[in-house]
Amino acid sequence: MQKFDALIIGSGIGGLECAYILARSGMSVCVVEKNAVVGGSLQSFKRGEDEFDTGFHYVGALAKGEILERLFSFFGLMELPWHQLDRDGFDEVFLKDKSYLLSNGHTAFAERLSSYFPNSSEEIKRYSAFLKDVGSKITDPLLKEGNGLSSLNELFLCNAYNFLKESVGEGALLDVISGTSLKLELNRPTLPLYTFAQINNSFVQSAWRLRGRGSQITETLANSIEKMGGFIMRGWQAVEIKEDNGVCSSVEVCRAKNTESLFADYIISDLTPQTTLKLLKESGSVRKIFRRRINKLEQTYGFFTLNLRLKKDAVPYVNRNRYYYTPELRSVWDVKDESAKGKVCGLLITQQVPKEGERFATYMDILTPMSYAEVAKWADTTVGHRGEEYREFKERKAEECLALAERIIPHLRESVERCYTSTPLTYRDYIGAPEGTAYGIRKDCNSIEKTLLAPKSPLKNLFFTGQNLNLHGILGTSLTALLTCSQILGRESVVRFLK
Ligand SMILES: Cc1cc2nc3c(=O)[nH]c(=O)nc-3n(C[C@H](O)[C@H](O)[C@H](O)COP(=O)(O)OP(=O)(O)OC[C@H]3O[C@@H](n4cnc5c(N)ncnc54)[C@H](O)[C@@H]3O)c2cc1C
Question: Among the four 67, 286, 295, 474, which has the fewest Cβ within 10 Å?
Fold first, then answer.
């Protein structure tokens, strides 16, 4: 019989960080991952000699003393080859045939925006000061003993769009401030101000890519866990969580025809809560009403992604991300609904950092939001067996994205050596994300008690972690890993680790 102090299901960054924290506190840990490689959305993949990332393009708040730097120092991730984006233009937003650069640092950010919108400089200063305040409200309670997170409640309950409308008015400024936001789903009626402000603030602080593949993050975490004596079972799928009198007694895992039962005092699931509940096939403790509530939660959109290998010395490397929106789009806040109609109206264009001293990019990713409905008719197919119609559909979509991207990168199509594409179905099948969602459960400021999930489950020793709980993204899942482990170790112990 295999028994651990803690068993973690899923090796996304959230699961690995929980395993790391618990192993550092002296517990025996085991991570079970259904795929052959760890990382979930942060895994990289190879096509011949080319290597691409899936769910990593850039992170914020990694400069000395900023929140992600403090977390990544603890996790041993600051040694990775981080590469800072241009401080005077880490993101560029293309809107209605004009382009706007966003600068790092709250003062420079406000000054740069004011140069585009001189009549709104007071509103911009107030908005920038607001972001800074949110950043410290979120960071302080997590890193200092004694404080709770109650000061954040009002941010969860506040509607982001209404707040922005009141702060800067509707129009171009609101769109520019929101224009780098394909890294979250802008949904007018539901998006909590917390999600918008927390993510945007971290990037206004500082913005970073990795030199080399994004999977270095999760590979490094996995190596550290193994060095501390932890086990990582790659290629093993959790198929059932067994319950005995309100306590998880074991987790059944299988690989090919082999099945094993793993026992642990604590179980942490990095899977979506829906999937976790499916694994709890027979449970007297999980009431039907709870299952119904979880199963009714909506998912944020997924992405159609182009991974491009570029011809040698054809496309200069640009040390920033570019967000392009079609001039016909009324507002960037309409991207979600327009994409749901099958239109390509917003692109995130990002490049991998080239080798030291090289001026040209070798790899470029182009992402556009895609609703699951667009690919739902292939829902019963699996990777590599979706048929000719699906292939043609992807080709058409890729062509549309490239044509739009050429509006800001002339002759891009001629510069492409190879092009690989993926849809929400790809994410669904590799990572197990329902409907191939990119950012997990849609949080709703009007129904925050239902959509914001706590790490605690109805079972005493079963906990949730990962992007579905609090906030998505690398920063969001890292903060959530702390919250999850606080339930097991106590908040003070976790806070002390970070000092
Ligand atoms: C296209 C895209 C671009 C993104 N870009 C960025 C970015 O630039 N910056 C940023 O900060 N964030 C970005 N994100 C978001 C970020 O990648 C995610 O928020 C984060 O990686 C989610 O981590 P997680 O721990 O919640 O788990 P996930 O990554 O969802 O991992 C869950 C793991 O569980 C495994 N699993 C599932 N079922 C089972 C089972 N039954 N048994 C065992 N294992 C199982 C899966 O294989 C997977 O490895 C992006 C996401 C996407 C999709």
Answer: 295
The pLDDT value given to residue 356: 82
Residue minimizing CA distance to atom 51 of ligand 1? 55
Q: Is 42 in the pocket of ligand 1 (CB under 6 A)?
A: yes
Pocket test residue of 9, 41, 307 for ligand 1, highest count of atoms within 8 A of CB: 41
Q: What is the CATH number of domain 2-77+213-297+440-497?
A: 3.50.50.60
Domain definitions of the chain by residue range: 2-77+213-297+440-497, 102-205, 301-438
pLDDT at 145: 52
Is the CB of 11 inside a 6 Å radius of any atom of ligand 1? yes
Q: How far is the CA of 320 from the centre of ligand 1 (A)?
A: 23
* Ligand 1, atom 46: closest residue by C-alpha: 431
pLDDT mean by block of 10 residues, the chain; 499 residues: 92 98 97 97 91 92 94 97 97 96 98 97 97 82 55 85 96 95 94 94 97 95 98 97 90 95 97 94 85 94 97 96 96 96 96 91 97 95 93 96 97 96 95 94 93 92 95 94 94 82
Which residue minimizes the CA distance to atom 6 of ligand 1? 56
pLDDT at 143: 61
- What SS3 string covers the chain? CEEEEEEEECCEHHHHHHHHHHHHCCCCEEEEECCCCCEHHHCEEEECCEEEECCCCCEECCCCCCHHHHHHHHCCCCCCCEEECCCCCCEEEEECCEEEEECCCHHHHHHHHHHHCHHHHHHHHHHHHHHHHHHHHHHHHHHCCCCCCHHHHHHHHCEHHHHHHHHHCCCHHHHHHHCCHHHCCCCCCCCEHHHHHHHHHHHHHCEEEECCCCCHHHHHHHHHHHHCCCEEEECCEEEEEEEECCEEEEEEEEECCEEEEEEEEEEEECCCHHHHHHHCCCCCCCCHHHHHHHHHCCECCEEEEEEEEECCCCCECCCCEEEEECCCCCCHHHHHHHHHCCCCCEEEEEECCCCCCCCECCEEEEEEEECHHHCHHHCCCCCCCCCHHHHHHHHHHHHHHHHHHCCCCCCCHHHEEEEEEECHHHHHHHHCCHHHCCCCECCCHHHHHHHCCCCECCCCCEEECCCCCCCCHHHHHHHHHHHHHHHHHCHHHHHHHCC
